[in-house]
Amino acid sequence: MRNRLQHALCELDALERNARAESPLHRLDARAKLLVTAVFLATMLSIPLSRLSEILLYALYPILTASACGMRLGTLLRRSLVVIPFVALIGVFNLFYDRIPVFRIGPLTITDGWIAFLSIVLRGVLSVGALLVLIGSTGFFEICRAMQRLGVPRFFTVQLLFVYRYLYVLIDEAIRMSQAREARSFDRRSLPLAVWGTVIGQLLIRTLDRAEQIHRAMLARGFTGRIPDYGAHRTHWRREETVYLLAWSAALLLARAIGPVETLTHLLR
Known about the structure:
Blueprint: H1 2-19, H2 30-45, H3 52-57, H4 60-68, H5 73-80, H6 84-91, H7 94-97, E1 101-105, E2 108-111, H8 112-138, H9 140-149, H10 154-184, H11 196-220, H12 239-258, H13 260-268
Antiparallel strand pairs: 1-2
Helix pairs in contact: 1-8, 1-10, 2-8, 2-12, 4-8, 5-8, 6-8, 8-9, 9-10, 10-11
């Protein structure tokens, strides 16, 4: 358990370290990257479930942006696959209700339910991949500050940032409790089921106590409920941001409006 928690903490640190790298995408204003990601999610999620090929086309965005910011595609895919159990639980019911045959591959019949199921899973993977690229090229603090500069209410941006920071506190306290358990359990690998409720309650109490200490320290240092502008790499809107925003937005909206894969398929037929 401790190894898995340490691995999760290392994954979060790796994203933040990648956000401090140097690339043309890193140097862009966070607002431009945030707006392009919002356009990508809006256009990709609005595609009907039956048009699986059109959703596959949108995989170009996370692939190209990940390559531009120096993220490994294998690592990005591995991190994006974490969402599969959750979205699969949502889409699995389509397998039982949508049984209209679409085409056959040998003895295997592909139904509308399978197309919808694969579309839901692919949507989840691409959405998480785009968000991971955004965090890996910007940093979560800069994303929240960009949302604040775009006019998002500050109570939402501050709470979002606190939730992200709370993950570090939660994982760190869980690692400490795991180390204490291993030192007192005499090599017992798992906890009894009856103890898990107490462990989770103790973890919640410990993390809340530490979060209160952090909050008092922030108030003592002048925290006013707003994400400060100092102490961060603040960029200004330039021509590069305008070109990046217009180029990607036009490409994504055009792909959504025209449907190039479906159009090409009709032309070939």
